Fold each of these.
Amino acid sequence: TATAEEAFILRKSGITKPILVLGYVFPYTYEQMIREDIRFTVFREDMLMQIEEEAKKQQKTAFVHVKVDTGMSRIGISPDENGREYIQRVITSKWIKLEGIFTHFAKADYAEKADANMQFQIFSNFCREMENTFDIQIPLKHCANSAAALEMPNTHMDLVRIGISTYGLW
């Protein structure tokens, strides 16, 4: 989903499968998200601290997907030393579980795929480096949005995120 509120509606409607909120969520949603096992997108230290505090309070694990900024320039950690430190912070938390890592293509819907391919390389290299550096296996790696799911099969990784194509749009 795009927001915590959308995720809450799905839970209230009886959806029990994992739900990931792909955007920023406000701290007032953390308690309910953890209680209802809704996955967080994380990319800021203050988020980690507050989510960890709430998870500890509930004695429950908070599942997170780290967003990596490879060129969209909205949200995300940088694929550099600062990003490595952030990943280390996530994986050493007692109350936070790294379930996934992802990026979002800025131009996968363009006819020319050079930018999207470059983003994919940056993301793939960063994921590989994190797994090797910290001797971990990140369960879910994902980057393919609707356009990439349709035209860039090499980017499918562990899952794809079909958005606008669900409605038959490009």
Amino acid sequence: KNLFKNRVLGIDLNPNYFGISIIEFNNRNDKYHIIHKEVIDLNKLQEKSKNKIHHELYEINHHILKLCKQWHVSKLAIEDLKFKQYKKFWNKDLNKLCKNKFRYLFIKSHLNTLCNVHGVELIEVNAAYSSIIGNFKHGSESCPDMIAASIEIARRSYKKFEKGWIYPKIVNNQRI
């Protein structure tokens, strides 16, 4: 299938938007550069009916796999989110958005099926501090929060089981 083993597509899944980025690693020194990045806005989708939401999520998942085929990506990385039913968020609206309207398991299972069909490896990584580390390392005007987090998720998935790879050094020698 001509998939490049050093290319990873990372997705930052949120109820209101998806951040998508494709990074390519240099095999010799584990440096990487960003090939493609985009944001999919879901704000207006939350007001639609259940069937419309499912249809749009199907189309978004197919778009993600088209990106994998177009860029010859071998790994697709998503966050490993586990929502506990009894744990509530701070307010009613946030609880409704994250627990009821955000269809994480639906997205994950459909992406898993599409990845199996197309021969792309689906990797779930720990989502802890991905937004914070992503913003420290990649945040700028051209790289908003959701894309910076997706870059960090893709980076974590490249060598998921290697010790010391998950959390990068974020030490800055300059004082502000």
